[in-house]
Amino acid sequence: MGHFRFLTAGESHGKGLTMVIEGLPAGLPLSEADIAPDLARRQGGYGRGGRMKIEKDRAEITAGVRHGRTLGSPVALWIENRDWVNWTEKMAVEPVETEIERVTRLRPGHADLPGTLKYGFDDVRNVLERASARETAARVAVGAVARRLLAEFGVEIRSHVLSIGGVEASVPDPIDWNAVEASPVRCADPVAAEAMVAAINAAKPDGDTVGGEIEVRAMGVPPGLGSHVHWDRKLDGRIAQAILSINAFKAVGLGLGFEAARMRGSRVHDVILPVDQWQGRPWRHATNNAGGIEAGITTGEDIIVRAAIKPIPTLAHPLPSVDLDTGEEVLAHYERSDVCVVPAGGVVAEAMVAIVLADAWLEKFGGDTLEEVRRNYEGFLATIGPRARSS
Ligand SMILES: Cc1cc2nc3c(=O)[nH]c(=O)nc-3n(C[C@H](O)[C@H](O)[C@H](O)COP(=O)(O)O)c2cc1C
Ligand SMILES: C=C(O[C@@H]1CC(C(=O)O)=C[C@@H](OP(=O)(O)O)[C@H]1O)C(=O)O
């Protein structure tokens, strides 16, 4: 929608990742320490490959912040690829003398075939470098900045793993978020977490990979973000686009999501009950099957997003494929790969939800300074009580 905008640039084995963020108000406290924890969380999770032993992601703020506060100008960030030193010739910006071996054995499930066809390349590397989920490090850094804005207003965004490799977790209520952070697979159910680790361990020696499902929750979100009036202002649609844009994400649901299709209306819809007082108003939904959004607008309940992540496409025991040069049958390309990225995927999904919410926040409460945003937010909250007219 353009109130909080960002671009990223960078190839997986190039020098690093560049981000430019536009739309932040002036006066927001922001430091590298606000970004570092999320970058570390994205690098974790059981089942990642050799690359994560090389990288130690750190986002440097190179513009838009002075003495710890945003200036209202674009914020620029930079993350170095530590692996780049091993790829200087293969990834050189200028032409090189040596002949670089091309990648031509197409990997099913990755960008290799559609990307090379679309851009007219004879070397899959020209596509895979940018298609790589290395770019999700940049999104998590941008998401941490969005999260910093939302934190000013008490909004908190978390994720946990619902399933890996067909092993399903039970979801405790309430969720112990510290336990999720301590879990090797970011799962709130310790028994299921053990079985998930076992599923990853079982897939690895087979040269295989596993996917799974994650859930993101945004807590402390006020009613009124998004809108029902146009398709591209509906917040559920904006969240779905943001989530499905993450590498390997294949399905998304709000609240009950797919489950709602199999239930009766009387069981699905969240009845509205009078209460003494809940967040400044005398009503509250009895349940939150809608996942905090009705008609594209936040209701004030937690936003709950569930998403499915496919198994990683690059297999150590490669799948049958064809060679881009000859069209002959070959096995797909393999150098190294993650076996499972479901926990990391949850962290990336948190970042995308934070970005969409920051955008919707500035759309509704936007201002040039943080204080102006705060005034607009508080002014709106003061209007959302009962509508009885005084005569
Ligand atoms: C955090 C993360 C790490 C990933 N690591 C790998 C990997 O090591 N090998 C691989 O083939 N795909 C990996 N992927 C998935 C591919 O990037 C993705 O499947 C590919 O870009 C094709 O896009 P699509 O699956 O969205 O259609 C990863 C995805 C995420 C979110
Ligand atoms: C670099 C990251 O993920 C990469 C995503 C990725 C892919 O194909 O998507 C392939 C792998 O890269 P490499 O071939 O260098 O091992 C992952 O490690 C990261 O998450 O930071």
Automatic annotation (TrEMBL):
Top-level taxon of the source organism: Bacteria
Pathway it belongs to? Metabolic intermediate biosynthesis; chorismate biosynthesis; chorismate from D-erythrose 4-phosphate and phosphoenolpyruvate: step 7/7
Enzyme nomenclature, EC number: 4.2.3.5
Q: Which CDD domains match?
A: Chorismate_synthase
Cofactor descriptive note: Reduced FMN (FMNH(2)).
Q: Which cofactor does it need?
A: FMNH2
* Reported function: This reaction introduces a second double bond into the aromatic ring system.
Q: What is this protein called?
A: Chorismate synthase
Please report the organism this UniProt entry assigns to the protein.
Tepidiforma thermophila (strain KCTC 52669 / CGMCC 1.13589 / G233)
Q: According to the entry, what is the taxonomic lineage of the organism?
A: Bacteria, Bacillati, Chloroflexota, Tepidiformia, Tepidiformales
